[in-house]
Structures are given as C-alpha cells and as structure tokens.
Amino acid sequence: MKRTILTLGVFILVLTLALTGGSPTRAQSSPIWSSAIFYFNPADVPIETTGCDSSPECDDISVIYYRNTGETVPSKTIPIRPFESGVVLIGSVLFDETFKGSAVISSTVPLAALFRQAYNSSDPYSPILYTTLDNTMAGAGYFYLPWVQRSSGFDTEIGVQNIESISISLKLHFYKRDGSLYTYNPVEGITVEPQRSYIFRVSAIPLPWGNNFDGSVVVEANFSGLPGSHPKIVAAAREVLVGGNKAYGFEGTGNGETTWHMVSGSCSYGPGMQTTQYSIQNTSTTLTAEVQVDYYNADGSLLTTYPNVGSATINPGAALLVSGCDPATADKLTGKYFSAVVRSTNAVDLAVVGKAISKDGLMTAFNGQLPPPASPDGKYYVALPYVEFATREDGIRTYLSVLNVSDSTANDIQLTYYGRDGSLIAAANLTGKPLPAHAKTGSDPNVVRAIDPGAYGFIGAATIVSDQPVVALARVQRNVNLPGGVTTLGDDYVGMYYLKNW
User: Fold this and answer.
1) Could you say which DSSP state residue 332 is in?
2) Is the CB of residue 14 less than 8 Å from the CB of residue 97?
3) What pairs with residue 351 in β-bridges?
4) For 475-494, what is each residue's pLDDT tens digit?
5) How many C-beta atoms surround the C-beta of residue 381 within 10 A?
6) Measuring CA to CA, how many Å separate 476 from each of 400, 433, 483, 497?
7) What angle is formed at CA 205 by the lines to CA 204 and CA 206, rounded to 5 degrees?
C-alpha cells in the first residue's frame, strides 16, 4: 500500500485566532469550519485484483486519525474504482466538530488527495486548500516553511507531523528576512508521539521581536535524546485574516531544490489588479544563496529577470520577498499574467511559496513546483483530485493552469474530467496549438462542456497526460458581495504527479 501523509492539525473545524491587543472580530469568535479530505484514483484499471471478496475490484482507501490527546481512530475502508473520486467529511466520520490532530491515508492505488476547509456561514471566508504529502516528500530532520508571519492581521498556524514509529523532539528556528535568528527550544522540550502532530500559532512563541514577524521557519527534528538523528516529518500552514474574509493554506517543503517553477505570476493584472509575491527561502543554514527570478509570458517568451543585474542574496535560513511589481521589473510586467522560474545561481538549495493578492478580495497561496518524472511509457501524468464548477454565479468554480516546464515544445497535452463515479465527462487536447517551453495554457469544466447546465454543474476530478513535463495549478474561487469591495474569495492548490507504472 502507498501511505499518504496528511497533516490536519490546526486546520480542523474550530479556529480561534485571538490576537493580543486587537479588538474583537469575527475571526476571533470561534467560527465553525467544515473540513474534508478529497481523494481521487487516477488509475485506469484495478490495481489490486486478488485476495478480496469482490475480485477484481479490490482497491480501497482507509484513513487513521490521530488525536493529539493520544487516541487513534481508524476509519472503515472505502472501495474505490478507476478514476473514481470522493470526499471524507471529517466531522461526520468522527462525530467531533473540534478534532485536532493528524491523519494517515492508506490506499492500494496511486491516490491523489487534498485537504479542504470551508467556512459554514452566510458570511464566508475563502476555502483553505493544500495537498497531501507522502513519504517521499517528508523532510529528514528538517522541514521548511518559506512564508510565516505574525501581525495585526495574520497569525500563521503550523502543524508539524511525526511520521516515524517512535517519538521525536522538535526545535523551531525563526528567521527574519534580514537573517536574524531565534530558536525556540523550551526547557521542557517539544515531544511529538508517533504519527501525531505539534500544532502552534506564531503568536504563542515568545519571539524577541514582539508582535510583528515576517520571515521563514525551519523545523528541526531529532529522535528524542539523539541529536543529528534526522527523523522524517511533514508540515503545513494556514492563515486566516483577522477581521476579514481572506484565508489560505499551503504545505511546506521537505527538501530544497535549486530551481522551482511558479505557475501563477502577475503584476496589477485584470480588474482586481492581481499581483503575486514569492517568498524564496534559503534552505541552507550555513551558506548564502544567490538567486534570480525569470519571468515568462504566456507564450513562453522571456519577459525580464529579477534582479536586472547579478543575483539577489539570501542569508542562511532566511527568505527573500520578491513582488511581480518590484520596481526593478514593473516596467516589463505591469498588467501582465505570466509564470516564473526561481533559480539558485550558486547551487544553494531553495524553497518557495507564492501568494496572489487582488484588490477584489482574492488572496491565495501556492507552492513552487518541480518537473514531474516520466512514467515508463515516456509520458507525464498529473492528477487534480478536486474540481468543482457551479452553474450559479455565486457558486464555487475551479480554473486550471497548465505550464510546460520542459525545454521542448509540448505537442500533446490531454486534459480529462471525470465524474465522482469515475465516468468520463469531457476530454480536451490543450495543444491544438503546440505549447512552447515555459508557456502555459488554461482550462475549466465550462470551457470543455463538462458541466450539466440543468443541474449543479460539475464536481469530480481531472487528469493531465503530456508528452513533455508539465505542472498544474488549480484555483478554486467563488464570487461574493461583501463589505469593503470584496467580490472574490479563493485559494490555489498544485496538481499532483503520479507514475503510471501498472
């Protein structure tokens, strides 16, 4: 079985974001959130075909929940057929609207899954989305969170999960953007039992800089009493705007890399004047990183590079914040929607998280992505486990962006939408016109006529199969009419590659 790690932690159902010194707000009044795991089987045939009562349909998934209080709660297995998708409503399964902890999903198929949290109210927040992390994405002794903050508006909440079979201890290293470091290592220690998680808000850490922090975090883990032992951990973060409706989540990074692809990029783009920012973390704690950001037009042509001359410097552990509208590049990028490549010019590894911010209320978070490996058939496969598109104007709608991250033109990119039951709803070739290197294209269920206009619309999943390495980003948003000119709420999640090796 493939084991998928999902850090639920602080993201579950009850949130109180009480900021000291602030006046009471909606975000401080314990709003109720509905939390769910969305899953998708991208395999086109049954994988496990023997040893079950209903051969050849033996495939299933199961979830084990780990309360931070120590209790383990296993779920019933869920049968899953080729291309089938579904949702686990965590509160309904556990009969507990206050669950905090972590979960491990096991499956017999190459499962793609994500966590979604939605606010149950006529006064909505953005959905919070982030993808699951499997064992290959775990950090060995270290995990990196490139954008962490504490202010009057935001208080990052982080869940760190121990995926080992014995207990571990943690240290938290906070880096300001100038490289200033504070390590939180209390006398009593931070011990995390097997599969459990340590959950904290930045406001609960006695940072020497007071109530304002903007920077990055390195989580260090060791087996208890064994420094330098490097146990495996994963982590995820989420933020909810105090007194507002913006919210988003993102998964951290277990390993730094020298090159990251950012599907979303913009500078004062569209009616909402959408602008992206990238927080680029140096994952070395001893070496200085030198970085550049290359910006590409939708057709794959190079627009400009940040900085204009040379490279930008990032101190060990710290993170550099680069805006699409930085003065050094704004003359070439203003009014444009583009993609970017963040790269180290001196071979020091990096981690990257981006955020898209719009004047109409939209604020999303998304991770940098790496080119997927090729499957044995030479093709590249990406799964999107949650795609929803409502017919009503104020419903949830998902928009997909696909970026060619190879150095060659993609001539065959197939996008297929599947209903919850695994039925093929619609398919499209995104390369009716070949997609050059660094170019991107978009789609949604409405464009390819995957929605049922006489019903809700579409809800299911999608796959992308390409002859060149591609990555994808899904934006899940809805139209609203809220005070302060807030007309759009949403979040992003990254597509998940899988190997077709069956």
Assistant:
1) H
2) yes
3) 281
4) 999 999 988 899 999 999 99
5) 22
6) 9, 26, 21, 19
7) 115
CB within 8 Å of 443: residues ≥ 6 apart: 399, 400, 402, 415, 428, 430
pLDDT above 70 covers a percentage of the chain that reads 92
Indicate the pTM of the whole model: 0.93
3-state DSSP call for residue 115? Answer: strand
Question: What are 34-56's pLDDT values in tens digits?
Answer: 788 999 999 999 998 887 877 77
Q: Which residues contact 240 (CB under 8 A, 6 or more apart)?
A: 15, 17, 27, 125, 128, 154, 246, 247
In 3-state terms, what secondary structure has residue 304?
Answer: strand
Question: Do 126 and 250 contact (CB within 8 A), yes or no?
Answer: no
- What is the Cα 58 distance to its own chain's centre? 30
User: How many other CB atoms are found less than 10 A from the CB of residue 145?
Assistant: 27
Q: What length is written for the chain?
A: 502
Residues 85/38, Cβ–Cβ less than 8 Å: yes
Q: What gap in Å lies between CA 295 and CA 274, rounded to an integer?
A: 16
CA 341, 344, 349, 353 torsion-angle sign: negative
What single letter denotes the amino acid at residue 306?
Y
Which string of b and e fits 177-195 if b means at least 16 CB within 10 Å? bebebbebeeeeebebeeb
